[in-house]
Amino acid sequence: MNLLEQGVWDRIKEGDIKSFELIFQTYYKGLCTYAYDFLRNREDSEEVVFDLFTDIWSDRMQINIHTSLKSYLFRSTHNRCINLIKRLDITRQRKLQYASDILIMFNEVTFTKEEFALDHLIDQELERDISQAIETLPPQCKEIFNMSRFEQMKICEIAAKLGISESTVKTQLVRAIDKLREILGENLK
């Protein structure tokens, strides 16, 4: 750190809010732009940077900066963006697994043939409820769900047929499953 930065940082460590506001105002917008390059989401970018500054203020006594203040802020933003991307990927993978599990459950529930008339009646009612729930989906979401569920098409096949990305297909399937689970709630437990 140069002498000017060291002076500002020393005042921040002592609890000088004006010095902290100075670095916040100096770097906030640039850090948000930098974070946006990674995340491609304005709100997530702003949240990452705001959380960084919040943590800096909270932990200012324990933080030792060995580079320039600017380098420290940009490296910290970089690391936080990478961590967020990893968390989002894990969440997305869990949702896709969940969607897959729900699709398997729909197959088991709707195509099970029971020997007893009451069970058959319950299956018919559940199939009717599922059909009605599917009808409430937005058009593209419903079309993608039906192609996956009833036409047994793979994600890549749906994407090619509709001229959209596989990512969009996956997202729409997750939304469909979430919406159906919300609507059908008790019937699926």
Description:
Helices cover 80% and strands 0% of the residues. It has 189 residues and is mostly helical. It has two domains: 3-89, Orthogonal Bundle (Rna Polymerase Sigma Factor, Chain: A), CATH 1.10.1740.10; 112-188, Orthogonal Bundle (Arc Repressor Mutant, subunit A).
SSE blueprint:
Blueprint: H1 3-13, H2 17-39, H3 42-59, H4 69-111, H5 117-135, H6 139-149, H7 155-162, H8 166-184
Helix pairs in contact: 1-2, 2-3, 2-4, 3-4, 4-8, 5-8, 6-8, 7-8
Task: Summarize the amount of helix as a percent range.
Answer: over 70%
Low-confidence stretches: 110-118
* Total domain count: 2
State the end-to-end CA separation: 59 Å
Principal-axis shape equals elongated
